[in-house]
Write a structure and sequence with these properties.
Function: Involved in formation and maintenance of cell shape.
Structural class: alpha+beta
CATH architecture of the largest domain: Beta Barrel
Organism: Amphritea balenae
Number of strands: 12
Order of helices and strands: HHHEEEEEEEEEEEEHH
Family: Belongs to the MreC family.
CATH class of the largest domain: Mainly Beta
GO cellular component, one term: plasma membrane
Strand content: 25-35%
Helix content: 25-40%
Keywords: Cell shape, Coiled coil
Radius of gyration: 36 Å
Strand order of the largest sheet: 1-2-5-4-3-12
Largest sheet: 6 strands, antiparallel, barrel
CATH superfamily of the largest domain: Rod shape-determining protein MreC, domain 1
Length: 299
């Protein structure tokens, strides 16, 4: 119809058609019904055209929400771990206040600096309880630094590289840590026996005041571990009338085989004299020989 016609003619025809449709819409009652049918036919086309925009909006909301949730979850995990580290010493401090004990040198208890780290590997050797962490010398980690999780002491760093470190767990058969019973201050050395959920207290006198359920906390002797952090809880005390020492077993409070987010505690660097624990780690004496020199505070 419009082939070969001028643009002006096309404009006049279209304008006339538009005027006619407007007049019909105003004067002809059936035009409303016709418009409704036309809208019904066009509706699927509108849905199809609008679908990509709706899908894009939904995906954008999902991605943004998931990213926010991941970031918030990571932040909350870190905050929870830091808060748990700060309250780990509450039990030790409460017991100490109840016993009305004061530090002989009058020094105030200082809050240690901590560094968040993450477990990235486990030693596959079943006879060596070691984990690999994503902090190294470049992060100011150092050999002998205490390793904790939200439950208590896990172990200490024994090897160091630039960006990673290797920590020995307290359950390793070569590890020993000075502890004290939180209830009464009885001191001993907790020895690893190669079981991931068990420690032993060697050469505990048969008359020692120690019982199931007692909480063992780090005594701070030796300068390797901060004082007052949970180490284990006594699960078994066997006394043989014919033996001089009781067989005492404890379960670590830290979740050694599950923890992934971990804390490194930075102790003040001080010069200390060699202790039985250092000699154990150096191989000069056995853990059993070191245990023989421990004594209760009342002795």
């Amino acid at each position: 119809m419009f082939n070969g016609g001028s643009l002006k003619a096309r404009f006049i025809v279209l304008l006339t058609l538009a005027v006619v449709l407007i007049v019909m819409d105003l004067k002809w009652a059936k035009m409303n019904q016709t418009r409704a049918y036309l809208s019904l036919l066009i509706t699927p086309l509108q849905w199809v055209v609008d679908t990509p925009a709706q899908v894009a909006d939904e995906l954008s909301d999902v991605l943004v929400t998931r990213t926010q949730l991941v970031d918030e979850n990571r932040r909350l995990r870190q905050e929870a771990l830091l808060l748990k580290q700060r309250v780990q010493q509450v039990a030790s401090l409460t017991a100490e206040n109840l016993r009305l004990r004061e530090l002989m040198d009058g020094r105030k208890r200082l809050e240690q600096d901590v560094m968040l780290t993450e477990l990235i590997g486990v030693n596959p050797d079943p006879f060596q309880h070691q984990i690999i962490l994503n902090r190294g010398s470049e992060d100011n980690a150092y050999v002998g630094q205490a390793v904790l999780d939200s439950g208590g002491i896990m172990g200490q760093i024994v090897e160091l590289s630039h960006y990673t470190s290797r920590a020995m767990l307290i359950t390793d058969s070569r590890h020993a840590i000075p502890v004290e019973v939180n209830r009464n201050g009885f001191r001993s050395i907790a020895l690893g026996n190669g079981s991931v959920n068990q420690l032993e207290l060697g050469h505990v006198p048969d008359t020692a005041d120690i019982r199931e359920g007692d909480l063992l906390v780090s005594s701070g002797l030796g300068g390797r571990f901060p004082r007052g952090y949970p180490v284990a809880r006594i699960v078994s005390v066997k006394r043989d009338p014919g033996q001089s020492f009781a067989l005492v077993k404890a379960e670590p409070t830290a979740t050694l085989n599950k923890s992934r987010h971990i804390l490194l505690v930075d102790l003040p660097q001080t010069t200390i004299l060699p202790t039985e624990l250092d000699e154990v780690e150096a191989g000069k004496i056995t853990p059993e020989q070191a245990s023989q020199v421990t004594e209760s505070p009342g002795e």
